[in-house]
């Protein structure tokens, strides 16, 4: 064997292929993270904390560096765009009904959707002509500095793995059958705008029924005001006129079976008040028994004042949740099952007034979904509370 051949063998070593059993073993690797025990009480910067952080980083690195073997043809391909801050899908593989949004005939994925599909090995993400690994994707999609993207993706991943369809929050859900604005839509939009002190949506204003409906509502409002003023004038005139009642002096036939006298009338001669007499009625006692079974929380008087001031915080609805068996379609989404609000770890939960204000931010009353408030702690534990506001 010549020297050139020996050098060639050293430079290009023989390729090692995995056996069938090794392929099956590494197809779905499972790396369990250590379970959290009792809360640590050591102070910051101690040796115990450094050891704990070192073990945590080693476990994360083991999860990210695990070899994953999947079919190359079983993944979609997307290219990350810095301008759009989204991943453009150039080749689809599988179903994408609940992922991405269309713009100018192209399908784009949000940063949390791209990272979620990348973790499931359903997506091959490319950036500047190179394939991005999962570890690089965390830095590229979520950023190097802490931001709300971390909590948004953590909540999105947890809810998606729980079986929900999670999409970005959208204002004004309209089904395919109600894309054309009707007179009823204009009426409800004007009533909602007058009660909630918010502008009428643009798609209502540009409809052909808006001007006529608005003029008709102004006429009805003025008519009601005129009737109220006339009624008050007639009441004043009646009070000023002398009483000229004429009573019927004819004898009336007595009833064959006189009605039983009420307890309130019998007790009126005892000197008790009318309220005390009414409390002796059977209908009041029945209502009192039913009322005592209800779990009622008494609110303060200021809780009903929903005017926005400097002390009321405004919350952003991030996601909308849909059920898989609810017939979800991205082209014509229905009213979501829940609307998600994500709180930071140091942010307190909203008050009653703030929840009412956030509920009224949604467009129409019949499309207001219950609010699911999720708080993400520093240790990445989530607490979720569901609010139903009637």
**Low-confidence parts, pLDDT < 50 over ≥5 residues?**
4-12, 174-179, 301-308
Helix content: 25-40%
CATH architecture of the domain at 301-387: 3-Layer(aba) Sandwich
Shape: extended
CATH topology of the domain at 301-387: Trna Endonuclease, Chain: A, domain 1
Mean pLDDT: 75
Look at the structure and give the CATH class of the domain at 301-387: Alpha Beta
Global structural class: alpha+beta
- Can you count the helices? 13
Distance between the termini: 88 Å
Spell the H/E element sequence: HHHEEEEHEEHHEHHHHHHEEHEE
User: What radius of gyration results from the CA coordinates?
Assistant: 34 Å
Largest beta-sheet characterization: 6 strands, mixed
Q: What's the short version?
A:
The protein is an alpha+beta fold and 390 residues long. Helix content is 37%, strand content 14%. Among the domains are: 25-31 and 44-69; 72-145, 3-Layer(aba) Sandwich (MutS, DNA mismatch repair protein, domain I), CATH 3.40.1170.20; 301-387, Trna Endonuclease, Chain: A, domain 1.
């Amino acid at each position: 064997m010549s020297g050139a051949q020996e050098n060639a063998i050293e430079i290009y070593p023989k390729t090692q292929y995995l056996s069938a059993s090794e392929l099956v073993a590494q197809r779905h690797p499972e790396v369990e993270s250590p379970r959290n025990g009792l809360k640590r009480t050591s102070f910051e910067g101690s040796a115990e904390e450094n050891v704990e952080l070192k073990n945590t980083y080693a476990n994360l690195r083991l999860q990210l560096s695990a070899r994953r073997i999947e079919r190359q043809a079983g993944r979609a391909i997307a290219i990350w765009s810095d301008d759009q801050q989204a991943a453009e899908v150039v080749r689809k593989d599988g179903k994408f009904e609940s992922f991405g949004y269309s713009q100018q005939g192209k399908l784009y994925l949000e940063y949390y959707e791209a990272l979620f599909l990348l973790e499931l090995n359903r997506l091959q993400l490319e950036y500047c002509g190179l394939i991005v690994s999962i570890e690089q994707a965390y830095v590229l999609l979520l950023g190097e500095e802490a931001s709300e993207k971390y909590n948004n993706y953590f909540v999105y991943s947890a809810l998606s793995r729980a079986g929900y369809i999670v999409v970005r929050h959208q204002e004004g859900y309209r089904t395919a059958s109600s894309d054309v604005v009707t007179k009823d839509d204009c009426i409800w939009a004007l009533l909602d705008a007058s009660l909630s002190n918010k502008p009428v949506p643009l798609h209502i204003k540009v409809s052909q029924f808006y001007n006529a409906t608005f003029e008709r509502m102004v006429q009805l409002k003025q008519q009601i005001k005129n009737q109220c003023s006339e009624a008050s004038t007639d009441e004043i005139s009646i009070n000023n006129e002398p009483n000229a009642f004429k009573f019927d002096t004819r004898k009336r036939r007595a009833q064959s079976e006189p009605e039983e006298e009420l307890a309130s009338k019998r007790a009126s001669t005892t000197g008790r008040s009318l309220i005390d007499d009414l409390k002796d009625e059977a209908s009041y006692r029945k209502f009192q028994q039913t009322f005592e079974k209800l779990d009622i929380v008494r609110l303060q008087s200021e809780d009903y004042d929903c005017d926005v001031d400097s002390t009321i915080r405004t919350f952003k609805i991030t996601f909308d949740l849909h059920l898989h068996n609810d017939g979800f379609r991205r082209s014509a989404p229905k009213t979501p099952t829940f609307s998600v609000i994500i709180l930071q770890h140091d942010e307190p939960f909203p008050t009653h007034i703030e929840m009412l204000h956030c509920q009224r931010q949604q467009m129409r009353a019949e499309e207001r979904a219950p609010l699911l408030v999720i708080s993400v702690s520093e240790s990445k534990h989530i607490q979720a509370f569901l609010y139903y506001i009637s």
